[in-house]
Write a structure and sequence with these properties.
alpha+beta, Aspartate Aminotransferase, domain 1, M1 Pyruvate Kinase, Domain 3, 3 domains, 7-stranded mixed β-barrel, 16 helices, 37 strands, molybdenum ion binding
Length: 708
């Protein structure tokens, strides 16, 4: 028997019981409390609601089950790691002495009840006094107590309970003697010698004494009062937040949200946030934005599926349909069918301060209370485009007052590019743009997100000589590769990539690439440049072969005639010089307010655009549906979702990272969890036929647009 609020580490014990033919079931426990909030701690004050019984072998009756001599186990946490709700330690005696009464005659109430307390979360502020409460097993975590070392805990076992435990496996240190070629083994007598297999982590264990030294200095009662006051302070502030329309911002998950009485709440605050229209902010969005502000949060279900479903109101059908939709633990599917699949958790410890809580409160206020008014200027920010007619676009275009300021080509994906005055176009975009990429020997595509040093690799293509030149501060000499010759190519291979852009019908494209490989000498050059073994490949053919939805089902693909190189989402990325200037003004203002040490100014090239325009209003490009540059027609696919990659910058030949400009962009350019800056373009489908091998883009050409 176990409470719904249990960690997966406890639920996993259920497998042993079910596999051996025993029964298992979950329970909800409600405790009545006095007016002052204290538990009455009596059998009459506890109400147990039993969930359906689970059993895998109905025909088998275990020894002692009918006579009531069987051993039963009740497992519950001293503090729920999802909600922070604490359970009374008096449950130990109530279950041991009055199981039949609280289970109301259930056939499973008989027998000798033993109790396991999962104190991994609650031990820091409410350690069970084992001289008062006869708990049989207590699991604790030194990591959750002290923050170090990870992966180390302890199981405390009452001596008479230890005699019941049986163990099959043995290893070094757990046997007194064994003989290799016959069935003989004599196990050690001591329970700790019997169960501690192999060499224990003695170096980590030695560090624990420092944690206990801190605890003994501060005292548990003082830490408990401090942590609870922080949690209550944060809860009151969060519940007071309202949007401009009066709607509540924050939903808390604790004992008050379920109207279930409990002793008190512990060290955590679990919550979700709502928009003014009542829809939910995804917990992953909250986590990512908090990280930009230097705040570390845990999000999801926290490996506590019972509490998660209970507090979020998720039924079995909800959970199964979420799984069918592709949602699994640790993914980014934070809102499905309008319901959150997890929550945001703030955890306080003895080292936490009111300044920490205040920083989180300020973060919520600035990032989630109301909607920034900058989006109401008349421009339509779109995370993706909508279907529209393509005929007669040229008749709807008008001068935008903008001109093409610069053109940049990035031959090798995630490496530095080069700017030109004019450049030819191909069916895949700018000629040679992202036509090459680097792959690790395990097949992983290398990008700046994982290998920031790739930004230090410079590239240039000489169209007259048809040579790609590559340089790196980690390599001597310049590498030159002929782009019109097969002399460097040593074979072909195929691989598949998922497009990162969601189609209009809710599907992601799967693209099949046919690539050419290069000889070892070139691969070795790039391996030295990035500091890990890799190989250079060149796209020679690509094809949209199928599409997948979020739940993995197949679907028809759009725009199947387009040839794409290794661009993430679209052939072209366009940004406005005026938009960058507006961003820099905001960065400068933020730097003056907070005295941030990183550079306040960002160059347009920080965003890796292909096209930079100048001459219009800031963010006017957000509302464009179609545009024409020179004689070439384009369609906007909507805003470009920015990531941490734009936070990398160069200083004294090294790649460094800051929280800007992404943190500032998040404060005013966020739409449904995406931080948009710049727009993605493709050739206009209705005018693709007009694109020939002689088409070029040239700096200075006028930009015509429409915003229908």
């Amino acid at each position: 028997m176990y409470t719904m609020e249990n960690h997966n580490s406890v639920l996993g014990i259920r497998e042993y019981a079910l596999n051996q033919g025993a029964a298992a079931f979950a329970v909800d426990i409600k405790e009545a409390v006095d007016q002052d909030g204290a538990s009455r701690s009596s059998v009459n004050s506890v109400k147990v609601s039993q969930h359906p019984v689970q059993r895998r072998n109905e025909a088998e009756v275990l020894e002692g089950e009918l006579t009531g001599d069987a051993y039963n186990l009740f497992a519950y946490p001293s503090e729920c790691n999802f909600s922070g709700v604490r359970f009374s330690l008096d449950l130990v005696n109530i279950v041991k002495q009055n199981a039949e009464k609280i289970l109301k005659g259930s056939p499973y109430s008989k027998g000798r009840w033993m109790v396991l307390i999962d104190a991994a979360k609650g031990c820091a502020t409410q350690p069970p006094d084992l001289s008062i409460y006869p708990v049989d097993f207590v699991a604790i975590s030194f990591y959750k107590l002290f923050g170090y070392p990870t992966g180390l805990g302890a199981l405390i076992i009452r001596n008479d309970a230890a005699k019941l435990l049986k163990k099959t496996y043995f290893s070094g240190g757990t046997v007194a003697a064994s003989i290799a070629d016959i069935d003989f083994v004599r196990r050690r007598d001591g329970v700790e010698e019997h169960f501690e297999d192999g060499t224990i982590s003695f170096l980590s264990i030695a560090s624990i004494r420092h944690g206990f030294k801190i605890f003994n200095t501060l005292t548990t009662s003082a830490m408990c009062r401090h942590i609870m006051s922080l949690a209550m302070f944060l809860k009151k502030k969060l519940l007071a937040f309202r949007h401009e329309n009066g709607e509540s911002v924050c939903t808390l998950y604790d004992n008050t949200s379920l109207k279930v009485s409990s002793h008190d709440s512990g060290s955590i605050v679990s919550l979700n946030l709502k928009r003014p229209d009542g829809s939910w902010f995804g917990y992953r969005e909250v986590e990512k934005l908090a990280s930009l502000s230097g705040i570390q949060l845990r999000t999801g279900c926290f490996c506590n599926p019972g509490a998660c479903a209970k507090y979020l109101g998720l039924s079995h059908s909800d959970l199964l349909s979420n799984l069918e939709a592709g949602h699994v633990c640790w993914d980014d599917n934070d809102v499905i069918n309008g319901k959150p699949t997890g929550a945001v958790r703030v955890s306080f410890g003895y080292m936490s301060t009111y300044e920490d809580a205040k920083k989180f409160i300020d973060f919520i206020r600035s990032s989630f209370v109301s909607i920034p008014s900058e989006f109401k200027k008349g421009y339509l920010l779109r995370a993706k485009s909508n279907p529209y007619p393509t005929e007669g676009i040229e008749n709807r275009l008008s001068s935008s007052g903008c001109y093409l300021k610069s053109i940049t080509i990035y031959p090798i994906k995630s490496c530095a590019g080069f700017s030109v005055q004019s450049w030819p176009l191909s069916s895949a975009g700018l000629k040679y743009d992202r036509e090459w990429l680097l792959k690790s020997w395990t097949g992983e595509i290398l990008t700046q997100k994982k290998v920031p040093e790739m930004s230090l690799i410079s590239t240039f293509i000489d169209l007259n000589q048809q040579i790609l030149s590559v340089e790196s501060p980690c390599c001597e000499g310049k590498l030159q590769i002929k782009v019109d010759s097969d002399s460097y190519l040593c074979g072909k291979e195929e691989f598949y990539l998922h497009s990162q852009r969601l189609q209009h019908n809710g599907y992601f494209s799967i693209i099949r690439y046919e690539v050419r490989c290069y000889e070892n000498e070139i691969d070795q050059w790039f391996s030295n440049a990035v500091g890990q073994p890799c190989s250079l490949v060149r796209c020679c053919h690509s094809q949209y072969c199928s599409t997948l939805s979020n739940n993995g089902s197949m679907g028809m693909c759009r725009d199947v005639d387009s040839r794409v190189n290794f661009a993430n989402e679209a052939p072209f990325l366009l940004i406005s010089e005026e938009s960058v200037s507006d961003l820099n003004n905001r960065l400068c203002s933020n730097t003056q307010k907070h005295s941030v040490g990183a550079p306040a100014y960002v160059n347009p090239m920080r965003f890796r655009p292909n096209l930079v325009i100048s001459g219009g209003e800031p963010y006017a490009e957000d509302g464009w549906r179609n545009l024409k540059i020179g004689n070439t027609y384009f369609t906007s696919l909507g805003g470009c979702n920015r990531c941490q990659m734009i936070n990398f910058y160069h200083q004294t030949g090294q790649v460094k990272k800051t929280s800007e400009p992404l943190a500032t962009l998040a404060s005013y350019r966020r739409v449904k969890g995406k931080i948009l800056f710049g727009i993605l373009l493709r050739y206009d489908p209705g005018n693709r036929a007009g694109l020939d091998t002689n088409s070029w883009l040239t700096v200075g050409e006028e930009v015509h647009s429409n915003s229908e």
